[in-house]
Structures are given as C-alpha cells and as structure tokens.
C-alpha cells in the first residue's frame, strides 16, 4: 500500500513539473488539438454543405450566418475551411509518418549493418536530398498524375531520406553504447538488437524533427493544391481555397486570408509541440 | 603454468593478435600499403580452468579490454587461436557464434549505459533467458526471481527501470542478465571500476560466491591491483599489448619477476595499514 502512495506522489510531482516547465507543449497541444477536433467533427460542426453553390450570396463578408464569409460562387467558407483542414490534416499525418516509419527503419538498419547496404541507402538518400524538394515532388506528380495521391506519393518519396540520415547517424553513435554491445554479447539476433533495443531509443529525435516536417509538408501540400496539382475541384483543401480567393483579394480579403491564418495557426501549434518535446522535463524513459 | 590446473582448461587462448589501422593516406591506398598500424594485442596466450578466476591487470591502453572483447568476437582477432572447450571461436559463424557468446558472457564497465534505459529489469532478464531457451524461462516471474536471487537482489527489483537503481544495483542486474543465458565463463570487464569502494567489496564477494555456486570461470579485467588481489586465483599482467607475467596471485604480487610488474606494484597506492583481516594479506604486501 505504501508503494501505491509513493507512485501517486511521484506521478503528481511529475505532472507538476510538466505543467510548469512545458507551457510550450501544453499550448501547442491545445492549438493542434482544437484544430484536429474541429477537422474530425467537420460534418457535425459545418453549418452548410461545403460544396453547395449559392450565387445569390456570393462574396459576402463574414457575418453570423456565414462566420468566414462566402466565396465567389457563394459557398460557405467556414464549412469549406473545416472540410479542407480535414483533408489536409489527414494527408499530412499519413505522408509525414509513413515517411518517418520508412526512413527510420531503413536508416537504423543501414547504420547498424554498415557495408554495402549502408552505402546504397546513403547514396540514394544523398541523391534525393540534393534535389530541391518541390522540384522532385513535382517530378513524381508528373509520373503519378495530379491529385492528392500524387502529392502524397511525391512527398513520401522525398521525405523518408532525411529521417533515414538522422536515424543512421544516431545509430552509428548508439552502436558503440555498451547496451548495444551487450545485445551482441548476449547472442541476440540483429533484428532483435535493431528493432527492440536500438529503435525505441532513437525514434525520439525523429519524432521531434517530424514536428518541423509536418509544417513543411502542410505547406508543400497547400502549395501543390494552390498550383492546381493537389486537391481537385470542387473538393476543398486550404491550398485550393487560398488559390481560389486570390483573384478577389482586393474586394473579398477573407477568402484567402482566413484559410491562410488557419495554416499559420497550425504551424505555430506544431512548432510549440516540437519545442516542448526538446526542452521538456520528459526523459527518454517517460515518453 | 605455475598454478595447478584441475582438469582440461575451458578456454585456451594462443598467440592472439589485434592490429588497428590508425591512418591510411590516399598514397598508401594507391600503393596497396596498409597505412599506419597500432598493434593493440601482440600475440597473447593463456588458459582458463573451470571454476578459476583469472585476473587481467594492466594500465590504460595495455590492451586488456581489446583482449577481453576478442574472446567473444566483439572485436575480431587478426591472428591466433581461441578455443572454447572444443569450439574454435574464431571460426564460429551464425548459430555457432551465438552459442559461444551464450557460453562466454560479459559484464561491462559502466552500469549506467550497459542496460537498455527503456526496459524494466525483469523484462531484460527474461528476454535473455527466452532468446536462449533457458530452462524455466517460460515461467516468467519465477525465472526472474531466481536470477535476481543469484545476485542478491529482491524480487521486487524486477519492476524497476534501470535509472531508478544505484550503480551497484545496476551492475547486479547486468550480472543477472548475463547469468540468465546460462554461461560457463564470465568476463568482468572493469566491472567494479566505476563503483565506490564499499560497493566494490560487495560485488567482489558476489563474484566469488557465483564461482562457488555455479562453478563459473571468471576473467576479471581491472586496472586496480587491489581488486584483482581480492578475487583472482591467478593473475596476468599486461603491458603494451603483451602479457608480461602470469602466475598465481600470491606469487606474482609477493615476488614479481618482471620489471614492469615490479614498477606497477610499487606504483600502486595502498590505502590501508598492513595486515588486519585475511582478505588483506595479499594486498598489504603490495
């Protein structure tokens, strides 16, 4: 019973430290959390069908009936932003973390095994990284075809490489750690040493980096939609809404500005989470 | 060999050599020259008997850790022969090498980094037992408790994470993990050097007990002669990659033959006044 008391006490102390030292993490989680909940609940929250055209109410200012105003064919912008956010968050989460999973796996294996596998992976990663990011994504879209699928494949093909490099360099250092030598001395297989002992200890830096990557990918995705290569009409996503509003920028500022501000807010929230994870009180073992 | 060896030695090391390439310039590469080479271990030979504790002493850079690591091929030897029972360690591959490593276990110097920080003590010990299908490992908790008991830790330690334990406790966990795979030789590579003196004594006694209870052979690598004097039956003094002198601990420490050994023993500080208890008899004459 005394043990339970000790545990409770420790937990409370950790939470206190957590709250004081990690306001960045807390604020970031609140912002991103709100955006994610709004996106998930879009069908419930959205007052209008995001694609319903109503020419009579075109280019209306934000008001109580249209919280963010309407666009040039009278579609409710608030509903479109919610649905757009939903698409963007889903796509960005998938591409960032599929890229992370591929990159971290390939990178740790390459770093651990070394030799020809390491050389091949390293050269491929160098090649991918040496191209300008957007140009390479465009090239992949040219092969796969425009649309969200094309953008997603394009970003994953490019995005894994940085994770691979990061994980590989961490693995090179970790390989010399006594607890990794011990896995060899204990006669464990390479698979066990890499995936059960090394990977959980080095995935953290990749997770921190992914908070930067999420923002970059969000912007690339919005950029591709802005160029007409991502989300295809009439579907909504933040980039395509922004693009659609630019012709009306002078007489209907809200069409471009509000989805842009949502994008910025998301970026700030994710960056705060990243900062919180880096400076935080959370030790390797607690996260 | 001056000391009596009861039966067939369990480990035989013959003329083992390790060279490290320090620098290899482009000119060397073009001319197929090997570059600048440092020979860390220069043809070392010794034997370890069943149930024997062999001390391996020497200063920093004398090659003792490299030698110890070569015995289980964490470092590949460049030349020589290593025989475990009838197995040629240098020729072992795959399953054979894993079996050699199971039989010859190692405890590392730094108990703060030799345990995976994310694994609870019980999980780490159980994993070692299960990977090598050790008897009882399927029982889980009972197996862990038995291993913890061997190193004199309470069963409740199983649910702890390494960072909740002290250095001495961690080193006991590292020993328990090594024992979990059922080895017959234990290499303690500076296993007590990072610990304070009172903890050192407890661990040295533990090593002695384990030898008696399990019939383990132990290769005890240390730079502190006092530590070696406490546990070792025989001692080998290493200097610049070679064994300068090898023999029973009492002989070597009381009557060193080699000049380097004499210097080393003379240079070693002895912190306590001569002869009080039985365990200080050898040390006090240093």
Defining traits:
heterodimer, A: mainly alpha, disordered C terminus, B: 286 residues, alpha/beta
End-to-end separation of chain A in angstroms reads 26 Å
Greatest interface: A-B, 19 and 29 residues
Class from helix and strand fractions of chain A? mainly alpha
Roughly how much helix do the residues of chain A carry, as a percent range?
over 70%
- Alpha carbon gyration radius of chain B: 20 Å
Q: In what range is the share of β-strand residues of chain A? A: under 5%
Oligomer: heterodimer
Number of helical regions of chain A: 11
Provide the structure class of chain B.
Answer: alpha/beta
Helical content of chain B stands at 25-40%
CATH fold-level name of chain B:
Rossmann fold
Show unreliable segments of chain B. Answer: 1-5, 275-286
* Mean pLDDT, all residues of chain A: 87
Just name the CATH architecture of chain B.
3-Layer(aba) Sandwich
N-to-C order of helices and strands of chain B: EHEEHEEHEHHHEHEHEEHHH
Stated plainly, the CATH topology of chain A is called MetI-like fold
Mean pLDDT of chain B: 88
Q: Got a strand count of chain A?
A: 0
Strand order of the largest sheet of chain B: 6-7-8-3-9-10
* Sequence stretches where pLDDT stays below 50 over 5 or more residues of chain A: 283-287
Beta content of chain B comes to 15-25%
Question: How is the secondary structure organized here?
Answer:
The complex is a heterodimer of chains A (287) and B (286).
Chain A: H1 2-21, H2 23-40, H3 42-45, H4 77-113, H5 115-130, H6 133-144, H7 148-175, H8 178-185, H9 190-226, H10 238-245, H11 254-279
Chain B: E1 11-23, H1 26-30, E2 36-48, E3 53-58, H2 64-71, E4 79-84, E5 87-88, H3 94-103, E6 104-107, H4 121-131, H5 141-150, H6 167-179, E7 185-189, H7 197-214, E8 217-222, H8 225-231, E9 234-239, E10 242-248, H9 249-254, H10 259-267, H11 281-284
Parallel strand pairs in B: 3-8, 3-9, 6-7, 7-8
Antiparallel strand pairs in B: 1-2, 1-4, 4-5, 9-10
Helix pairs in contact in B: 4-5, 4-6
């Amino acid at each position: 019973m005394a043990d339970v008391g000790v545990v409770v006490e420790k937990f409370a102390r950790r939470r206190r430290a957590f709250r004081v030292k990690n306001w960045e993490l807390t604020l970031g989680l609140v912002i991103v959390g709100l955006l994610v909940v709004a996106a998930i609940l879009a069908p419930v929250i959205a007052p209008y069908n995001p694609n319903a055209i109503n020419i009579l109410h075109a280019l209306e200012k934000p008001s109580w009936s249209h919280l963010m105003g309407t666009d040039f064919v009278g579609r409710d912008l608030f509903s479109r932003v919610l649905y757009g956010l939903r698409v963007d968050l889903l796509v960005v989460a998938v591409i960032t973390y599929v890229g992370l999973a591929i990159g971290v796996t390939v990178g740790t294996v390459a770093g651990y095994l070394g030799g020809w596998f390491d050389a091949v992976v390293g050269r491929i990663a160098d090649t991918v990284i040496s191209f300008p990011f957007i140009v390479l994504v465009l090239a992949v879209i040219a092969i796969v075809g425009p649309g969200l699928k094309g953008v997603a494949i394009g970003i994953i093909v490019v995005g894994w490489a940085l994770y691979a490099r990061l994980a590989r360099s961490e693995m090179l250092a970790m390989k010399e750690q006594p607890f990794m030598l011990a896995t060899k001395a204990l006669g464990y297989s390479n698979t066990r040493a890499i995936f059960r002992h090394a990977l959980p200890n080095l995935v953290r830096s990749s997770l921190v980096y992914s908070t930067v990557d999420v923002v970059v990918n969000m912007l690339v995705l919005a950029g591709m939609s802005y160029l007409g290569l991502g989300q295809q009409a009439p579907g909504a996503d933040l980039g395509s809404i922004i693009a659609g509003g630019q012709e009306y920028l002078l007489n209907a500022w809200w069409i471009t500005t509000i989805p842009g501000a949502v994008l910025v807010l998301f970026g700030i929230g994710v960056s705060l989470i990243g900062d919180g994870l880096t400076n935080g009180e959370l030790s390797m073992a607690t996260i | 060999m001056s000391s009596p060896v009861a039966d067939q030695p369990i480990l035989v090391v013959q003329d083992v050599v390790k060279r490290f390439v320090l620098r290899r310039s482009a000119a060397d590469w073009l001319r197929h020259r090997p570059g600048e080479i440092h020979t860390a271990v220069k043809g070392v030979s010794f034997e370890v008997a069943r149930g024997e504790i062999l001390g391996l002493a020497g200063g920093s850079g004398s090659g003792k850790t490299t030698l110890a690591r070569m015995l289980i091929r964490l470092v590949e030897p460049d030349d020589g022969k290593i025989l475990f029972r009838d197995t040629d360690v240098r020729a072992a591959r795959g399953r054979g090498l894993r079996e050699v490593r199971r039989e010859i276990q190692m405890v590392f110097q730094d108990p703060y980094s030799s345990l995976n920080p994310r694994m609870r003590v019980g999980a780490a010990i159980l994993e070692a037992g299960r990977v090598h299908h050790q008897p009882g490992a399927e029982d889980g908790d009972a197996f862990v408790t038995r291993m913890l008991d061997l190193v004199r830790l309470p069963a409740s330690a199983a649910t702890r994470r390494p960072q909740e334990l002290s250095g001495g406790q961690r080193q006991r966990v590292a020993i328990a993990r090594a024992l979990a795979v059922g080895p017959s030789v234990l290499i303690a590579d500076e296993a007590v050097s990072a610990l304070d003196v009172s903890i050192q004594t407890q661990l040295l006694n533990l090593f002695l007990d384990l030898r008696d209870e399990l019939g383990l052979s132990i290769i005890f690598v240390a730079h502190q002669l006092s530590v070696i004097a406490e546990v070792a039956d025989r001692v080998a003094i290493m200097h610049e990659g070679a064994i300068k002198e090898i023999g029973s601990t009492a002989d070597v420490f009381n009557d060193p033959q080699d000049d380097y050994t004499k210097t080393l023993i003379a240079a070693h500080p002895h912190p306590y006044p001569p002869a009080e208890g039985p365990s200080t008899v050898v040390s006090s004459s240093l």
